[in-house]
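Students often ask what a 'structure token' actually looks like in practice. Rather than answer in the abstract, let us consider Crh-like protein, a protein of 459 residues. Its sequence is given first.
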Amino acid sequence: MGRFYAASAAIAVLISASLVSAEIPTCGPNKLCPAETPCCSAYGQCGVGAYCLGGCDPLFSHSLESCVPNPICKSQDYNLNSLDDIAPNTRYLGDASKAKWVSSGQPVAYQNEAVLLTMAPDTVGTLLATTNYVWYGKISATMTTSQGKGVVTAFIMMSDVKDEIDFEFVGIDVENAQSNYYSQGVTNYNNGRNLSTSNTVTNTHTYTIDWTPEKIDWQIDGKTLRTVERQSTWNATANRYDYPQTPARVMLSLWPAGLPSNAPGTINWAGGLVDWDSPYMQNGYYYALVNNVKVECYDPPKGASVQGSKSYKYTDKAGTNDTVVVTDDVEVLASFFATGEDPEKNPNAAASKSSSAASTKTGSAAAESTSAEVETVPGLSGAGARGEEGGPAAVVSQAPGSSVTQPAAGSLQTAGGSGGTGFSQGDTQGQSGAAGKDRRVVGGSGIAFVGALVGLLVL
Ligand SMILES: *[C@@H]1O[C@H](CO)[C@@H](O)[C@H](O)[C@H]1NC(C)=O
Ligand SMILES: *[C@@H]1O[C@H](CO)[C@@H](O)[C@H](O)[C@H]1NC(C)=O
Ligand SMILES: *[C@@H]1O[C@H](CO)[C@@H](O)[C@H](O)[C@H]1NC(C)=O
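Now compare that with the structural description of the same chain:
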């Protein structure tokens, strides 16, 4: 019941599990990021590079210019039948025309018809997020979920100021989808509702979030099972609607809520600890299978400040609907050391002669640099955290479409979990698990929660 927001929980897991260094500046209410690492990530830590892309929180970053503008909504069918449209977060630098999704963890192509979100032992699962944002629209995901104690599948909308609309699937209850919503990350234990459906693992359903300025509908297979009206969300204390109202990315995730290191409330909600030797695993991992995501964009809301057609930007730290403008600003980072304030920064270009291992990598991936230790990719820390593909700490060690992923996925149909042959997760840092992330422990807002999480990590 209470709790939780899927994305940040999932992100928190992904992040906290892999943090090694504790000396990362934190951000949150009344604590903005410093100028040298200006971007506040979704889980409250400051960095550059990928920290300034999707999920970068404009309210707690150094300035409103620190995070790059959000690529605008594009109506489209995302046919998830290969990994071609998916860029690992260690490679993506903000060019939404080149990648439709950004991943952390290990997505796997399945028989040219679907993408698997995988979760193998000692990993913290997989998260996919669209590169384009949606500012109201009808978003559908056609998918099956995973199953088992402690295993959570999620299809959600999440904005950079943590407005959130959720479908969550808890692996011990495959007859229900849990619907939920949050406003600016503020925990509210009364928003969750179960939506009854037929087995979410064995049946492919289409889950739809139909989101307008006035209401949210949650639908399964075209049937509306829940509606929340904006009018019903008035918060007299805050003097505003606690209603999701800012541009959000589509996120799909599979994550281990049932890790021993998680808070008891989280583990209970998820039905207990994950069994890492479970019949629900195949090829050595849990998986959820996503066939298709469809986004139908609605027009910007009436009264919106429309000054262009390419991106959304926040003009004020209130982070409400009326502080979002539509602009023509597009920023693609020149390297993993660039930020929204300095998008051209690329120390490797300037210092390529002197930095030994640098600039041998392909494409846009940044390389090691001699410059100060700053965090460049949320969830990665240390030597591999420079957006360098294949680096020792990279979450994804395989290039998209590489041969290792194919056989594993192809044999998925064979019955039974014959266990982990031939497939190995790149994320070996996942083992330490996540710090407690039960909102009830810290109370108050999700922001506070994230802050507490970071606090734990620093200890
Ligand atoms: C949803 O159902 C589960 C049991 O399957 C229950 O534990 C949970 O409290 C329900 N949530 C709500 C919001 O009713
Ligand atoms: C109203 O907003 C305040 C401030 O954000 C928050 O602390 C409180 O929990 C909200 N009330 C409800 C019922 O969500
Ligand atoms: C923002 O929301 C308010 C209701 O809180 C509404 O009256 C206003 O029209 C909205 N403005 C935009 C630009 O969406």
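One point worth highlighting: The first strand starts at residue 39 and ends at 40. Ask yourself how you might have guessed this from the sequence alone, and why that guess would often be unreliable.
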